[in-house]
Amino acid sequence: MSRGLLSRKNHAPFLMKVATAICLFSVFFYPIMKIALAGDLPAEVTVRLLGPDNTPLPPEKVPSVRKSDEEWLKQLGPERFHILRTQGTERPFCGTLLDNKKTGIYFCAGCDLPLVSSKTKFHSGTGWPSFFEPFARENVLEIQDRSHGMLRTEIRCARCGGHLGHVFPDGPAPTGLRYCLNSEALVFRETSER
Ligand SMILES: [Zn+2]
Q1: Mean pLDDT for each consecutive 10-residue tract of the chain (194 residues)?
Q2: What is the whole-number distance in angstroms between the Cα of residue 164 and the centre of ligand 1?
Q3: Distance 111 CA to ligand 1 centre (A)
Q4: Measuring CA to CA, which residue among 193, 178, 158 is closest to residue 41?
């Protein structure tokens, strides 16, 4: 019994080293692991599609959109692939949709899911298109993002897992949220709705 205790004591420094190694691994490799996990969408997801009056239809189950990196690159081209599939960020004040003031819906450039409406767009001064709420909460995933030494909430498309941007708690009323999205992650379609 005493030998057993001694043996456990001798293992303590080793276990501490293992725990330290796991912590360090999590801090440095978590962002890389997360990219690898981005393809882990369930076969079906619940989202809200676009209704005839440009408002969300009731939630419904649809197949998720899952493709290989090669397929995504071929479909999206290098710039959109960089943003959507490798969590890239376009340079501020460079996005094509930053100053778009037309009435319409912004869709996912990867899978065409409606993501935000012009009715919720506002001028944030940050250099990226900003919205105070998504088209439907079901259509975006929120993921804790610890990359670049910051704690942020990443936003992804709920149907294809594509990286869209981040959401911050400093937006205007009525939500107080700022969905800060990359133009390259979006496709805009004008509607006649006022
Ligand atoms: Zn998508």
Answers
A1: 51 67 51 48 96 95 97 97 95 90 97 97 95 97 89 96 96 97 97 70
A2: 9
A3: 4
A4: 158
User: Contact, 167 vs 89, CB < 8 A?
Assistant: no
Q: Are strands 104-108 and 114-117 parallel, antiparallel or unpaired?
A: antiparallel
Helix (H) or strand (E) holding 71: helix 69-86
Q: What are 39's two structure tokens?
A: 């393809």
| Token pair belonging to 174 | 């009525």
Write out the catalytic residue numbers: 180
Q: Which long-range contacts (CB under 8 A, 24 or more apart) does 71-78 make?
A: 72/110, 75/110, 76/109, 76/110
Q: How far is ligand 1, taken at its centre, from the CA of residue 3, in Å?
A: 59
Q: What pTM did the predictor assign? A: 0.79
Question: Which of these, 53, 69, 26, lies nearest to 161 by C-alpha position?
Answer: 69
**Which tens digit of pLDDT belongs to each residue from 118-167?**
999 999 999 999 999 999 999 999 999 888 888 899 999 999 999 999 99
Distances (CA, A) of 141 to 6, 26, 45, 54, 59: 49, 22, 11, 21, 15
